[in-house]
Amino acid sequence: MNLGIEGKWALVCGASKGLGRGCAEALAAEGANVLLVARGAEVLATTAAAIQAANPAVQVLHVAADITTAEGRAAVFAVRGDFDIVVTNAGGPPPGAFRDWGRDDWIKALDANMLTPIELIKATIDGMIARGFGRIVNITSSSVKAPIDILGLSNGARSGLTGFVAGVARNPDIAARGVTLNNLLPGKFDTDRLKGTMAGAAQKSGQTVDAVRAQQAAQIPARRFGTAAEFGAVCAFMCSQQAAYLTGQNILLDGGAYPGTY
């Protein structure tokens, strides 16, 4: 299937590795030009070079910056101001107990996982409306659908973004102009973040990492973790011409782990 995004420009955040990289690779493979953003300059440069080598016909730019800061966003938009596709993505806040979190913890979580995506939407959506095409995909979390008790900061901040997107996406001045906003909710994917979480669980329980990994995979109906390539492929479809009637939705990608009907 030709997704119809050849020549479009995509901004992909958190793109040096993991799910962000999977999205950047999938978009570039469909002929979209990509600007990759991440904090780690060395890993980011390596990723950009790999994507460029695999897709010589597209333009691949990269900016090493913290997208959750005003300075980081300014650095990105100094390189390019207009985008047809925006994939927002930032690392989730740390786990913990809600009694231990102060105002600064909440503000940091909100800045990264709610306010930064909103700022990126504000900065790019009017250009999309003017051109009659736009796709905004926010990488959030399955915890928006099924909250995780120790991830209260993430539950709260990402749920706030979800409510904001639900309203904006249905604004006729946006939805009728060829611009869609959706959220992509990952469950457990085989990324460095998951490996770190499993290492912590293994240390706490006294088990091996392999044992923890097997236990967690067994709780998923698919009996495995997702891959970044699978995630990226779904993201690319959400950015396609064919997905023009999909907006204001939360697409849960978790191997069937969520047990609810709705």
Automatic annotation (TrEMBL):
It holds the Pfam family adh_short_C2. Signal peptide: none annotated. Belongs to the short-chain dehydrogenases/reductases (SDR) family. This is 3-oxoacyl-ACP reductase. It comes from Ottowia oryzae.
